[in-house]
Amino acid sequence: MAHLVDGVVAWPVLVGGTALAAAGLAIGCRRLEPERIPQTALLSAAFFVVSLVHVPVGPWGMHPLLNGLLGILLGWAAFPAVFVALLLQATLFGVGGITVLGVNTVALAAPAVLVHLLFARRLERGRRALWGALAGGTAVVATAVLVALTLALSGAELRPAAALMLAAYLPLAAVEAAFTGTVASYLGRVKPALLAGPALLAQGRDA
Amino acid sequence: MSAAASGIRAPGPSALDPRARVLLLLAFAIAAVALRRVESALVALAVAGAGAALAGLPARRVARRLAAAQLGMLPFLLTLPFTVAGTPVAALGPLAPSAEGLVRAATLWLRVNAILLAAQALVGTLDAGRLAAALHRLGAPAALAQLLAFTVRYLGLLEQEYLRLRTAMRARAFRARSDRHTWRSLGQLAGMLIVRSAARAERVMEAMRCRGFTGRLPAPEELAFRARDAAWLSLACACLLALVAVDRW
Predict the structure, then answer these.
(1) Alpha-carbon gap, residue A163 to A148, rounded angstroms
(2) Which of A32, A60, A83 sits opposite B74 (nearest CB)?
(3) B7: how many CB neighbours lie within 10 A of its CB?
(4) Minimal Cα–Cα distance from A104 to chain B, Å?
(5) Is A145 on the interface with B (CB under 8 A)?
(6) Rounded CA gap, B220 and B130, in Å?
(7) Which residue among B61, B117, B165, B181 has its CA within the 20 to 30 Å range from the CA of B43?
(8) A12 touches B: beta carbon within 8 Å
(9) B23, closest residue in chain A (CA to CA)
(10) Rounded Cα–Cα distance for residues A31 and B168 (Å)
C-alpha cells in the first residue's frame, strides 16, 4: 500500500519523480560520511524488515512506514536508505516496482527529511514522546499527500484510487505517531546520542 | 518476441554480466510500462516467466511473493474499470464498467507481474556484493553501493536479533493485544532493536577503521562486460522496441 506499482504513473510524473529522487540521493550520499554507513545500513534494513509486516486495516493490508523515525535518525541520509530498501524489496521480494523506484523514494524520503528539519532539534532538547509522535504522524500524512498527488497528476481516472489510498493512510498515521513517540522516548532514555547524531550530520559537520 | 525470449534463453540470465542484467531489467520495465494492449502485455509476462524459470527461481517462492504483491494493485484494479471513460459492458446498479477500463486494469495487472518476475529473475538472483559493484560501475555513488552491501548483510542479523527479543518477551508471558501496553512494549522492542544494532554497527566501524578503512572498499569482484553481454543486451533491447512498436501500431 505504501508503494505505487509500475504502470499507473504517467510519464511526465515518472520523469519528474525520478529526477527529484536523483537530486535527493546525490545530496544524501554526499552527506553520508563513511563512518555512518554501517548505522544507516542498519536502519535501512530495519525499514525493510518492518515494511514486510502486514497489519490488516480495513479491506487492505497496511504496514508501518517508519519514515518519520528514519528521518529523525538519519536526516538527508534517509534518501539513500529508502532507495536501497525499495530496490531490495522490488528485486528480492517482488514488492513495489522498478520504473516507480524514484517516485516511491521521493514519496517516502522527502517527508523524512521534512520531519528531520522540523523536529530533530526539538527532539534533542526533550519532550521526546510528543515530538516523536508529531514526527511520525507528520511523515505519514506527508507521504499520503505525495502519493495522492502523484496519482491525481497522472490522470483524472486515477483520482478515486488516490482518494481511497489517502483515506487508508489516515488510521496508519495515528498508529505510526504513537509508535514513533514511544521509540523516540525510549531512545532518549537509553541512548540519547542516537537522537543527537543526525543533527550534526545535517549541518555537514563531522558527526 | 520469441527472439527476445531466446535472448534470455540461450545463456540463461545468470550467465550475463551484472551490469547487463541491471540495464536489461531497466529496459524491460520501461518497455512493459509503455504497453497498451492485453496481447503484448501477455507476451511480456510470458517472457518474464520464461526468464524466471531459466534463472532457476523456485516456483513456490515466486508465487508466494507475487501473491503478496497483488495487494498494492487492488485500489487500481477495483476503480479503473469504472473510472476510465468508454463503452459500458454491463450495468451493476449505478456502476457500469467500461471495456476500455477493463482493458486498462488487465494490462496493468499483467505488466506489474511481468516486471516483478523479471526483477526477481535478473537482479534478485545476484548476490549483494555483485549488485553493489554493478551499480557503482554504472555510476552510482560509492556510498550508495556500500550502503546496499551493508544493508543486505544486516537484514539477517536484524531478524535474528528481533527473534531473540521476541523470545525474551514471550518468556515473560507477553501477548500482543490491541491495547496501550502492547503498543508501548512493541515500541520499546523496536527501540531496543535500534540500540543494540547501533552498538553492533559501531563495533563493525571500529573494526573496519583498524583495518585502514577510509571510505573506499576494494572492488569485491571483477566484473567483465564482454562482447557477448553487449550482443545479448542489444538484441533484447531491439526485441523490446519491436514489441512496443507493434503494440502502439
Answers:
(1) 7
(2) A60
(3) 23
(4) 13
(5) no
(6) 7
(7) B61
(8) no
(9) A98
(10) 38
Q: Give the cell for residue A166.
A: 489517502
Q: pLDDT grade, residue A105 (50/70/90)? A: very high
User: For chain B, what are the domain ranges?
Assistant: 2-126+223-248, 141-210
Cβ distance A42 to B119 less than 8 Å, yes or no, reads no
Pairwise CB contact (< 8 Å): B75 & A194: no
Q: Does B200 touch chain A (CB under 8 A)?
A: yes
Instruction: Quote the ipTM score.
Output: 0.83
Residue A57 β-bridge partners: A60
The beta-carbon neighbor of B201 closest among A42, A49, A98 is A42
* Per-block mean pLDDT, blocks of 10 residues, chain B (249 long): 40 74 91 88 90 84 80 79 78 76 87 89 83 86 88 83 84 76 77 82 82 70 78 88 86
Q: Cα separation of A127 and A143, whole Å?
A: 25
Q: Which amino acid is at B176?
A: A
Do A135 and A71 meet the contact criterion of CB atoms below 8 Å apart? yes
